[in-house]
Amino acid sequence: xxxxxxxxxxxxxxxxxxxxxxxxxxxxxxxxxxxxxxxxxxxxxxxxxxxxxxxxxxxxxxxxxxxxxxxxxxxxxxxxxxxxxxxxxxxxxxxxxxxxxxxxxxxxxxxxxxxxxxxxxxxxxxxxxxxxxxxxxxxxxxxxxxxxxxxxxxxxxxxxxxxxxxxxxxxxxxxxxxxxxxxxxxxxxxxxxxxxxxxxxxxxxxxxxxxxxxxxxxxxxxxxxxxxxxxxxxxxxxxxxxxxxxxxxxxxxxxxxxxxxxxxxxxxxxxxxxxxxxxxxxxxxxxxxxxxxxxxxxxxxxxxxxxxxxxxxxxxxxxxxxxxxxxxxxxxxxxxxxxxxxxxxxxxxxxxxxxxxxxxxxxxxxxxxxxxxxxxxxxxxxxxxxxxxxxxxxxxxxxxxxxxxxx
Length: 407
Hints:
By secondary structure, the protein is α/β, with parallel strands linked by helices. It has helices spanning about 15-30, 45-55, 65-70, 80-100, 150-170, 170-180, 190-200, 240-250, 270-280, 295-300, 315-325, 335-340, 355-370, 370-385, 390-405; strands spanning about 1-5, 35-40, 60-65, 105-110, 130-135, 185, 205, 225-230, 255-260, 285-290, 305-310, 330, 345-350. The longest helix has 24 residues, at about 80-100.
């Protein structure tokens, strides 16, 4: 079948939304003839990869969002970004109308961005099967954790919760898009529940992110030194403070625990260094800042545990990457993290309040550092768990949906 895919973010050797676009496109390209709409900022990376590897074979169409919109894209919580992103989607709609005069498509698929806030306009094209998703973004920040935020962050998260509640129920174009869709994909079971409860629409869970198949991984050796890693942007919902305070408590009992922090932008490094100085120790904590994609992967693969303290995420790429490398995950039991992690590959902590989370993360870290057999068992379980969520298997779910709705 010939499929038209809208994937704003799509490029190799990237994480988050961009990885979603790239990896689903790569897998679906093995089955179908794809035309893919991508933001122009990713053109260089895509063309370099295709020139080097002669794949994927699909046709890429690049639509420019402009320098201002592109600069805002990495921080999608910025409301101004959606102004530019909506204009980009309108450009895509007009471009596709013209493209359809030259090409016939069997299905149109709005793949990403996965957030429901901007559904684009492709759903307005009638007489052709339409797929929307995976959809996410309904997650709310748990208010029992507001005490770990600054005043500004508190205002932001509370405002976002209110706006998110209203938008997710009364966003007319989104409602029209999913009612028009022949198939709606939900990024997590929570998203599926909200879509059903709010709009009465059945959806199919397709994880936002996936894992990579790695045929050969070196046998993991657990040493006396325990390396814990945290990867993410410096955002209030990522709750890095919980991780730093938990590690600080744990190293009081075991000085062989080392904490690696990756992803904090330069302008926020001082904030993190202050937290380390106040609650932990620079002898045991390293704040790397932002690393290249491959260097982050190399460091993750050498660590023993991933701390994922986020309180508001769908199916994060870093969790999938940790499972791929056989790194056990300690995370909150909420949203997409709760879907993916189980007792075979990590430990989930109930979302109660910040003090409980700090204590639980710390206790689990001490337990794992003292029980190497358990840590090794979880590592083996992580590799096995990753096999359930490969990009290939996720893409097969989408392919089955394509086949079921194709005319």
